[in-house]
Amino acid sequence: MRNDIIFDTIAYDYTIKGDVNMKIVSIEPTPSPHSMKINVNEELPDGETLNVKKGDDLTDAPSYIKELFTIEGIINIYRVVDFITIARQPRARWEDILPAVRDIIGTTENEDDLQIDIPLTDNDEADDAFGEVKVFIQMFRNIPMQVKLENEDGEHRFGLPERFSHAIMTASTEVPTFIMERKWVEQSHVRYGEPDDIGNEVVEEIAASYDEERVNHLVELAIQDKQESESETKYTSISLDTLDDPDWRVRYAALDRLDPNVEHLEALDKALDDSRSSIRRLAAAYLGMIEDKRVLPYIYKALKDKSANVRRTAGDCASDLGYTEATEEMIKTLKDDNRIVRWRAAMFLFEVGDESSVPALEEALKEEPEFEVRMQINMALERIKGGEEAKGSIWAQMTEATKKD
């Protein structure tokens, strides 16, 4: 079976005018450092979208789509209304991709007006990926079956301890719809790092949260075609004594089933001091689920954690919540040792920063070695200084910088 282009409408007109006349107007960030939103000066007809991934059959695709996929590192192109979102392999460099995109599509900007004051620097880490990994768990009637990770290298699957396979066999014996009922559940928070490390960590966490007693109970419910009750699935409270248990699996299991709210801040604060980074990361993730400014001191604490994974999660939470009160702390994060944390700080300031952020952003720009982070800092500065009209100049500056390097 060939991999066809995915369209959201049954009929699609391949003769898009933008194929010939479409030009780039500006560039915008997205929530991921691995994708960019390219605003263009022509719109698709209402209801029409185009979603193409590397490896799809491009026979009938617009010529600009075919040309864009000749650029090394592009893995997905999503076209809708008046913009194109381009996704890259994390190991591909935007400073290589963006000038090529511009050469193919063209821009509405005047080349003579381009100015560049951002020198690109060589960096031994340039070939290292940001390490973004999506986590999925295959479930059958609430019983975990296996773990799947997705990153730029493809899929990575991990088996669970033997008791899970035995449980699935028992629970599915009398279920003719077993194949249809299996489903992949994407976890709410992206992780960062090497797939093997993340996969093994996720397996350990599942084994901790689903002990033998819970798995056996889920099997009984599955056989009866029943679901766990709300009180069984999520806890409304957690004992501080439980978070002192010497077995990390007990601590993790209790925290994993918590339905967090502002009343749990004391427990989450305690969890942020745990010796196990997976527990600290989960506590940080929960803070982002509580839409209350009282979480901010605890997010600040997580931003100083010794584990980059925890700091990354805390930065994601601060950005998701978007409280302007966090500006000062996110400015400090521009100096973090980890580039994805710095990128998240710059993204936060792009979204909610004000004039008070400018000196720190300008200082960070002088010292930042990473292209993606520099570009995000530039976008933040231009948004604060010049508003929406300045976005186009960022595209020009950053792509032209690569030509003059």
Summarize the structure.
This protein is an alpha+beta fold and 405 residues long. It has helices spanning 18-21, 63-68, 94-105, 162-172, 178-181, 195-209, 212-223, 230-233, 248-256, 265-271, 277-287, 296-302, 308-321, 327-333, 339-352, 358-367, 371-386, 391-404, and strands spanning 6-7, 24-29, 35-40, 49-53, 74-80, 83-88, 132-140, 143-151, 154-159, 183-186, 191-192.
Give start-end ranges of low-pLDDT stretches: 1-19, 111-129, 389-397
The CATH homologous superfamily of the largest domain corresponds to Scaffold protein Nfu/NifU, N-terminal domain
Number of helices: 18
Q: What proportion of the residues form beta strands (DSSP E)?
A: 15-25%
Number of domains: 4
Strand element count: 11
N to C succession of SSEs? EHEEEHEEHEEEHHEEHHHHHHHHHHHHH
Tell me the name of the CATH class of the largest domain. Alpha Beta
SSE-based structural type: alpha+beta
Major beta-sheet overview: 6 strands, antiparallel
Give an account of the 3D structure.
Helix content is 44%, strand content 15%. Helix 3 crosses helix 18 (391-404). Strands 1-4-5-6-3-2 form a six-stranded antiparallel β-sheet. Strands 7, 8, 9, 10 and 11 form a five-stranded antiparallel β-sheet that branches. It has 18 helices and eleven strands.
How is the topology of this model organized?
Layout: E1 6-7, H1 18-21, E2 24-29, E3 35-40, E4 49-53, H2 63-68, E5 74-80, E6 83-88, H3 94-105, E7 132-140, E8 143-151, E9 154-159, H4 162-172, H5 178-181, E10 183-186, E11 191-192, H6 195-209, H7 212-223, H8 230-233, H9 248-256, H10 265-271, H11 277-287, H12 296-302, H13 308-321, H14 327-333, H15 339-352, H16 358-367, H17 371-386, H18 391-404
Antiparallel strand pairs: 1-4, 2-3, 3-6, 4-5, 5-6, 7-8, 7-10, 7-11, 8-9
